Amino acid sequence: MYATASVEADVMSVLRQFADAYAIRDKGRLLGLFCSDRDAVVLGSGCDERNVGSTAIWGQVRRDWEQTDTLRMRFGWRSVSTMGQVAWLATDCYLYVQAGYRKAEVPLRITAVMIQNHLGWQIAQLHYSSPISVESEADTCVE
To answer: Which residues make Cβ contacts (< 8 Å) with residue 46, sequence separation at least 6?
Structure first.
């Protein structure tokens, strides 16, 4: 079910367009990358960052923009698979954030589901989270 090279390129292009729109704070372009279904979902790393539908997604994006001066993403490792008009991906991401004098590059993991329709590939679900630090082989998730 690995995606063909052309499908992988198309899907990653949508994700890069998302990153570009996020960086330049282009609401119309960013929201246009999501499918129009009322159940499009964006899950963030915060406990309250569960956003369903374009109004909630816009609220999250607006809050991110209000709290920062700069947001830029770059992508690393990735895996893209597809079946019919559905594609799903996982990727490492590095988010450069500047808020006032504070700057950081935050490692993230992103998963997404995209649907292909007459507009091309569109995001139906997007989830980003911060991986925890490297655990030793003796560590468990509950220690």
So the answer is: none
